[in-house]
Amino acid sequence: MAHLADRLSGRYSRHGLWILPLGVGLAGIVGLALMADDFLSPQNLFNLAAQAAPLLLVSIGQMLVVLVRGLDLSVGSMISLTTAIVSLDASPWATIPGAFAAAVLVGLVNGVTVVRLNVHPIIATLSVTGIIQGITLFVRPVAGGTIPEIVTTLVREEVFGVPMPVFWVVLAIGLGWKLLHGSRFGLHLFAIGGGDTAHSFGIPDRRNTILAFVACSVFAALAGLFLAGRIASGDPNIGTQYAVDSITAVALGGTQLAGGVGSLQGTVIGTVLLALLANGMNLLNLSAFVQTAVKGLILLAVISIQPRKSIGL
């Protein structure tokens, strides 16, 4: 049994076991197609892409932090702050760069607090979450405002009959691949998360850990920009669910929360699984309370089979 648990948890692969989630996803697609007549309709599939795009963006960012044995609980608040900034009555050439500048600042604060002040990532990012949420409510106390036309166009329009959310998904995967497999940065993240000897081999572990938190916040800002264009307003609470959902998607795709093991394809599969689950439960008219409970049970189950030497992540 222990040997089987090790195999299922992906202990022997740097990329984790993403084949099993892929099989579950394919089975889920078949099951939903049989239970819900509208599941395979073009409109529902396009809606599925629109639901998956922001979660995929924030989950890829979350994965970068998890690889270095961290967690970022501030991504949800960063999403909300982005929608609030973009919805201000000002030029988009100021608000959009301003939102990403805020994301870089948040990532730096998270990273420096964890690396330099030795604060646990959960405590550090949870504290930053409260600060960001307070600023967001100051900027946009209630949902409203106007989103620049360029943002709504990039989210709602079609190109050659293909909805823009599909291109956002491709963008997210392309950025994730570039960071993980097209640069030394990705290799360094695996090395840092794999043990405490990365620094001995000349890898700037502290700098790269901080950069992982910065990249995570920037991905969250991209997700916020997408959501702002989709709902055409700013919303101080729209990002609430994404912190837990992104961690669930990352873990579901085979990334070890203890660090050093994970893959882009696994995160994509985990995101699709969650999007399929939410879409299917909506089609079956299950309540939001049931959906939240199901996601919580999935996260608990996935973490329970991950190998850990001691209590903790």
UniProtKB/TrEMBL annotation:
Q: Which GO terms describe its cellular component?
A: plasma membrane
- Kindly indicate whether the keyword Nucleus belongs to this entry: no
Where does it localize?
A: Cell membrane
Q: Which GO terms describe its molecular function?
A: transmembrane transporter activity
Primary localization class, coarse = membrane
Q: Which residues cross the membrane?
A: 16-36, 48-71, 91-115, 122-139, 159-180, 210-232, 283-305
Under Pfam families, the record lists: BPD_transp_2
Is Transcription regulation set as a keyword in this record?
Answer: no
Q: How does it sit in the membrane?
A: Multi-pass membrane protein
| Keywords on record | Cell inner membrane, Cell membrane, Membrane, Transmembrane, Transmembrane helix, Transport
Protein purpose: Part of the ABC transporter complex LsrABCD involved in autoinducer 2 (AI-2) import. Probably responsible for the translocation of the substrate across the membrane.
According to the record's subunit comment, the protein's assembly and interactions are: The complex is composed of two ATP-binding proteins (LsrA), two transmembrane proteins (LsrC and LsrD) and a solute-binding protein (LsrB).
- Which PANTHER family does the protein's record reference? ABC TRANSPORTER PERMEASE PROTEIN YPHD-RELATED-RELATED, AUTOINDUCER 2 IMPORT SYSTEM PERMEASE PROTEIN LSRC
Q: What is this protein called?
A: Autoinducer 2 import system permease protein LsrC
Q: Which species is listed as the source?
A: Aureimonas pseudogalii
